[in-house]
Amino acid sequence: MKFLSRFYIDGFILSIIAVAVLASIFPAQGTAAEVLGWATKVAIFLLFLLYGARLHPREALAGLTHWRLHSVVFAATFVLFPLLGLALKVLEPTLLSGGLYTGVLYLCLVPSTVQSSIAFTSIARGNVPGAMVSATLSNMAGVFLTPALVILLMNTTGEAHVDASSVLDIVVQLLLPFVLGQLLRPLIADWLQRNAAPTKLVDRGSILLVVYAAFSAGMVENAWAGLSPWQVVGLVAVMCGLLAVVLAVTWFAGRRLGFPVADQIVIVFCGSKKSLATGLPMATVLFAGQPIGLIVLPLMIFHQIQLIVCAALAQRYARRADPQPEQAVAGH
Questions:
Q1: Is the preceding peptide bond at 325 cis, omega within 30 degrees of 0?
Q2: Is 81 in contact with 272 (CB distance < 8 Å)?
Q3: Looking at the chain, which runs of residues are DSSP E strands?
Q4: Helix (H, G, I), strand (E, B), or coil: what is residue 42?
Q5: CA–CA separation, 35 and 255 (whole Å)
Q6: In 55-112, which residue ranges form alpha helices assigned H by DSSP?
Q7: Rounded mean pLDDT of 182-205?
Q8: How many CA atoms lie within 13 A of 91 on its CB side?
Q9: How crowded is residue 6: how many other Cβ atoms within 10 Å of its Cβ?
């Protein structure tokens, strides 16, 4: 383990890899998939309830009003990513087939993931209130912006319809438990400060559930069928390069714009993510009648790479000197 720690590989990252392999061999199907889906929702609900209970209302309000931070994350998600997606057109058809490039461009248009962005920000000791607002705003805006960007930048058949239940799910799974946590804060805040293990377990457990569910869905849909090994390798290389560019830009932007370390962590983790949970359902509507498995494959691969890389980054941030979250409040 000491040898692995030199490469920032710890038990958490090994757990992510192990869960991905397990889901590839034993994917959840039928009733098991339904149970997994509900378990993931419960874990997310509990995660946000604990965040609400841990955060002082003053910190939550500071996170809500930090519009400068949110605008940078929003620009990374809905401006930087789409521009990079359009630029990757040069790789078609030499490195990316037409179907794979469609998937690459699509992943660049989906919103940021919520639970893992916030969980990694928490692990890295960043500005959790700011991360909650930035990631949630991105996800809610994506319900409307992603279909609009798909229609504007991609060739789709039929009309894109966005179900209002997507907004309701965000309210029920994220905002409601956070409010409940705030209400329960006087009762359990002291206990949570003395016992960090439950929150840490939920942080990491929710991410592992998402990984297992994502790989299970890919195996059930045969997302890899019909692809040659070199196409998969090429796609993985493109996804790694895309993530590296976005991480570099968000890291540089956070430092160049003078944000405190706690806010830089938010920009890196929230600005570099893409949501599989939001992207998969949207793809089934926006690309009806087309090979959905192939189109969402880049998103699935990118999602797994971002989890592994950001887990390493979060652990590295956590080993740094305390980023002093109060600086983020003062920086508002």
A1: no
A2: no
A3: none
A4: helix
A5: 43
A6: 57-64, 67-75, 81-87, 98-107
A7: 78
A8: 23
A9: 7
**DSSP 8-state class, residue 91:** G
How many alpha carbons fall within 13 Å on the CB side of residue 194?
4
Provide the 10 A C-beta neighbour count for residue 236. Answer: 15
**Quick one: CA dihedral 172, 196, 126, 330, positive or negative?**
positive
pTM: 0.71
- Looking at residue 178, its amino acid is F
What is the structure's pLDDT at 4?
A: 44
Classify residue 157 by its DSSP letter: S
Nearest CA among 271, 283, 328 for reference residue 134: 271
Q: How far apart are CA 20 and CA 26, in angstroms?
A: 10
Contact 121, 262 (CB under 8 A): no
Which of the residue ranges 9-23, 68-82, 92-106 would you say has the lowest mean pLDDT? 9-23
The secondary structure of residue 125, as a DSSP letter, is T
Instruction: Name the pLDDT band for 5 (thresholds 50, 70, 90).
Output: very low
Q: In one letter, which amino acid is 194? A: R
Average pLDDT over residues 308-321: 82
Q: What is the pLDDT of residues 114-135, one digit of tens each?
A: 778 888 888 888 888 888 888 8
For 241-296, what is each residue's pLDDT tens digit?
A: 999 999 999 999 999 999 999 899 999 999 999 987 778 777 767 776 666 767 88
At residue 36's C-alpha, the angle toward residues 308 and 205, to 5°, is: 40
Q: Is residue 170 within 8 Å of residue 185, measured between CB atoms? A: no
For residue 307, the SS3 value is helix
Q: What angle do CA 146, 310, 173 make, to 5 degrees?
A: 50
**98 phi, psi to nearest 5 deg:** -60, -45
Q: Can you tell me whether residue 160 is helix, strand or coil?
A: coil
Q: Collapsing DSSP states into helix, strand and coil, what is residue 277?
A: helix
pLDDT digits 0-9 by tens, 295-307: 888 888 898 899 8
Separation CA 151–CA 178 (nearest Å)? 34
SS3 state of residue 332: coil
